[in-house]
Amino acid sequence: MRFSPAGDPGVPDIRSATRYLVWLAGRHKALLTVGILLGVVWMVAQALVPAAVGRAVDGLTRRDEEALLTWGLVLLGLGVFQAGAGILRHYCAVHNFLAGAYRTVQLTVGAANRLGAALPRRVSAGEVVSIGTADISQIGAAIDITARGTGAIVAIATVGVILLGASVPLGLVVVLGVPLLMAVVGLLIRPLHRQQQAYRDSEGALTARAGDIVSGLRVLRGVGGEPVLSARYRSRSQALRADGLRVARVESLLEAAQVLLPGAFLVLVTWLGARFALRGEISAGELVAFYGYTAFLVSPLRQLTEAVDKLTRGHVAARRVVRLLRLTPELLDPARPTALPDGPGELVDVASGVTVRPGRLTALAATAPEDAAAVVDRLGRYVDSDATLHGVPLREVALATVRERILVADNDAHLFTGPLRAELDPHDRVDDATVAAALAAASATDIVEALPAGLDSAVAERGREFSGGQQQRLRLARALVADPEILLLVEPTSAVDAHTEARIADRLGAARAGRTTLVCTTSPLVLHRADHVIFVEDGKVVAEGTHTALLDGEPRYRATVSRGED
Predict the structure, then answer these.
(1) Rounded-to-integer distance, Cα 393 and Cα 339, Å
(2) What's the CA gap between 144 and 515, in Å, rounded?
(3) In terms of C-beta density within 10 A (0-12 exposed, 13-18 middle, 19 or more buried), how is residue 95 classed?
(4) Which one of 247, 345, 379, 547 has the largest count of C-beta atoms within 10 Å of its C-beta?
(5) From CA 260, how far away is CA 254, in angstroms rounded?
(6) Contact 136, 104 (CB under 8 A)
(7) Is the C-alpha dihedral spanning 383, 384, 385, 387 positive or negative?
(8) 416/271 Cα distance (integer angstroms)
(9) What is the bridge-based pairing of β-strands 361-366 and 532-537?
(10) How far is the C-alpha of 290 from the C-alpha of 296, rounded, in Å?
């Protein structure tokens, strides 16, 4: 069954990954700003700890108990202040992470709904799944790291100012050394960016292939194609593994740089500070403070490299999201939608000449199944055409109105996970008697009776516990429960046995009494019970009438419905 969005999901008009990340951050300006401020306070409080320790050490060397007590209390206050700011910063960081990740999920689902039936033709299922599983974490982490990254920058600047005030050479080492370290890290970011993009593309393709294999596993086993597909999947999996190793190789260099470069920086500043202390240019307390500063700088430097890494990953992920968001539906609402008259009316496909009269069970038999599917696509407005309802072109009617009044039910529809009752009546609009009547009309009552909890039984993913014929009957029951004004059914009995098909054919007309129904089929059992039969060849109507009349007067029709047998 095909569904389309009820309205505009509010997807922003964003043309780049960077703008998307900025837009996401701007969605929660207050909490993001508070998080950044707390990150700054948290890091600066840590940066001031070495200064307090140094002053306390100087007080100890001078045997100044008052100074020792004062700076000891200052150190305690900084510790408490840092702990409080850290807790609040982490709260904001988690909120910002989740807000960025799940807002991306909302936009992705909204874009999928907006694309409607065009989604499978525009983007693979694996791509959408990868966005909803892997990419949202990368995007959330990119939003989260802004607080710590900003705090790290301010903390480094604070330490640099303090060191410049105490010793110009040491201050210059910090002021000049930090940008140099970041430049070295930046050399690793570009190849990491490329490798992550390649890995992400391969991951999406492999996920799509895995979904295809799982959904078609029964058929593959039936035709003996499982070993072939398994070998292909194994080959693609190994290619993905190779891409992952290339990413890991660059990431390992980046991780090593995060340890090695700050460590070397710490050794350099400590060595210089020790020389100045031996020459008497700085006190013992200042030497301890300088060592503390350099030891502390390891943290903000790692925070900065982590920020660059996460922002890069977030940019790669956001690029995929933006690519999905920029897809436009194949069908758009008219600028000024035309209202449809109330009540039943003729549904006409101008291209083929098919006219579906209101209140009747009409069957459409086509020599080529794709011709029947094309007619239904036009009548259901899943492609642009000159089809009309009540004489009004469907292209001039709002899509929501078309979907409300015309329902297309085909064999590409899925059964979703959840209680069977919710599967048959997703909007919870009808009572159990209506559901039972639809199940009876679709000859699906036995399916429900065989389930341990009846309608309350859980349906597995894609209804895999049901056979193909059972799934088809449940899909038909779902369409009958919806009870649309116009129902277009595409081969609703192709996967069931002859006895079940006969029962469905007998009951379908009564279940849809007073409603407009078109059934695309070449089954004599269904055609015989239709009020009117339309025969289509080469995409055009060539004959109409009852099943019996067409059998007697149209040899091509007879050959089509009898499969070429007399």
Answers:
(1) 11
(2) 55
(3) middle
(4) 379
(5) 10
(6) yes
(7) positive
(8) 66
(9) parallel
(10) 10
Identify the burial level of 8 via C-beta atoms within 10 angstroms of its C-beta, where 0-12 means exposed, 13-18 middle and 19 or more buried: exposed
Amino acid at 360: R
Q: In degrees to the nearest 10, what's the CA dihedral of 330, 332, 338, 343?
A: 50
Both structure tokens of 193 = 């960016």
Cα–Cα dist 453/109, whole Å: 31
Structure tokens given for 42? 């948290």
Side-chain-facing half-sphere of 225: CA atoms under 13 Å: 13
Res. 247: pLDDT tops 50: yes
Q: Could you give the C-alpha distances from 124 to 6, 201, 412, 465, 558, in angstroms and in order? A: 23, 12, 15, 25, 41
User: What pLDDT is recorded for position 209?
Assistant: 67
> What mean pLDDT, rounded, does the chain reach?
84
The C-alpha atoms of residue 351 and residue 28 are separated, in whole angstroms, by: 51
Q: Which residues are within 8 A (CB) of 513 and not within 5 positions of it... i.e. 6 or more apart? A: none
State the residue for tokens 């790669």.
Answer: 316
Please tell me the distance from the alpha carbon of residue 436 to that of residue 521, in angstroms, as a whole number: 25
pLDDT tens digits, 103-128: 888 888 888 888 877 777 777 666 77
Cβ–Cβ < 8 Å for 142, 313: yes
